[in-house]
Amino acid sequence: MTQRTVLVTGGNRGIGRAIALAFAAAGHRVAITSRNGSGPEGVLTVQADVTDAASIDAAFRVVEAELGPVEVLVANAGITKDVLLLRMSEQDFDDVVATNLGGAFRVVKRASKGMLRARFGRVVLISSVVGMLGSPGQINYAASKSALIGFARSLTRELGGRGITANVVAPGFIESDMTAALPEDQQQAYLGRIPAGRFGSGDDVAKAVVWLASDEASYISGAVIPVDGGLGMGH
């Protein structure tokens, strides 16, 4: 695999951290953004807020100075503010969309400048099975994650002729502190919906992302890759 400069937003914990570790293990030059906290050892951590374009530009300048132009961008940073529609405030909706969708827009726009110059780029947007299936109490989150599909496909049509691919990875239920804290009966109810019969791991997601960024996936763009144990059945 050709060594690349990789930037993972929100890479200090959870799925983002697993993705950063997988790229580093494959020999790539890896940086992560974090609002607070640091990434894994051996990975460059830059402080950034994906809702602030100036903050993103400053982070990219640090990465470019230390590791070179960003060739692989993984837009992973995201938040949730779950509440049923009739109780959801406009701020709840706007904050989630500004981070999950607006954040992807800002980082992709900034990364695309270097990718166009190089006539090479890999963009991977981290969505969610919820973006396809929907989920009560997550209208803001589901809307923001579903929108990433149209984003990737429009980006493919704009920049696909310049050696740039844009794809979406849609994780399902992934093992985390949050899922571990759920009551046993609730965990079993979730597991009953997953044909694979288990929660996924951060590594499951990371492997798909690393492959999409590889030379082997150069003819794949505008695709949605579910990593959900069959929960969404491709929807």
TrEMBL record:
For whether the record's keyword set contains Oxidoreductase, the answer is yes
Q: Does the keyword Lyase apply?
A: no
Keyword annotations for this protein, in alphabetical order, are: Oxidoreductase
**Any one GO molecular function term:** oxidoreductase activity
| Annotated Ketoreductase domain residues | 4-177
A Pfam family annotated for this chain is: adh_short_C2
Q: Which PANTHER family match?
A: 3-OXOACYL-(ACYL-CARRIER-PROTEIN) REDUCTASE, 3-OXOACYL-[ACYL-CARRIER-PROTEIN] REDUCTASE FABG
Q: Can you tell me which family this protein belongs to?
A: Belongs to the short-chain dehydrogenases/reductases (SDR) family.
What's the protein called, per UniProt?
A: SDR family oxidoreductase
